[in-house]
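Good morning,

Both structures are done.
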Amino acid sequence: MLIKICGLTRQEDVDEAARLGADFCGFVFHSGSPRHIAPEQAARLKSGSMRRVGVFVEQEADEILRVMREARLDFAQLHGGQSVACARAVGAERVIRAIWPHRHPHRAQLHAELQRHADACACFLLDAGVAGGGSGRRLDWRKLGEFKAPAPWLLVGGLTADNVRQALSQCAPDGVDFNSGIEDAPGQKNACEMAAAVAAVAQAKAMGRQDER
């Protein structure tokens, strides 16, 4: 189970994410976000072995590639409806594509949208609402119970230490993304909540293995 902690702005929070064994650390490069960080600030944040992800909303390929170089990013999370051509220009193997199931009331429409991007991303991220992110809103996890994607996918949207086990009992993502649900304020993570959230994921995984026996 992959774990991504997003909206990071402080070294102490990045250090804690690394200590807890998170796989990805995320930085938001959208000026309208309260978690916005400049590329040079992100570059100074040491992240150990975690893979570094930049969240892009308004930018297109040239600017995304520039920020990826400046901020030492491994992945670009396209969170603004950027085109397939943009994703391919960035490099499909480096793209995390945000998808909003609420935009697609019928499962066939959602699958069609996933297939449209399947060859231009490394994985998907399913978010709540119809645009943006970091709002704390949740998806209806039960509706994703039998969900199959053409690439690995991460679940995001209002996940906390208190609800992530329930989420993982109702659907089966390849990973989870924590952001607003483990904060004291936008961009300021709560170390205790981060630790509890990661522990809850481990517990959910252990229960899943027991259920398979």
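Second structure follows.
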Amino acid sequence: MSIFFFALGGLFAIATLGTLLTGVVGMGKGGAFNEKYGNKLMRYRVIFQGLAIGCFVLGLLTR
């Protein structure tokens, strides 16, 4: 079961990285995209990051 949580945590970590990069690039360019999606992307980044940490902790606890 711990392998499942580590794999899921890895997927959430990749989602965190993708969301972070999209948000940073959007912030750098500015414009309508940043105004519409900038705050949402950073919220999703925090959610994905929390889920990744939670999955890694669960993976360690189920060892």
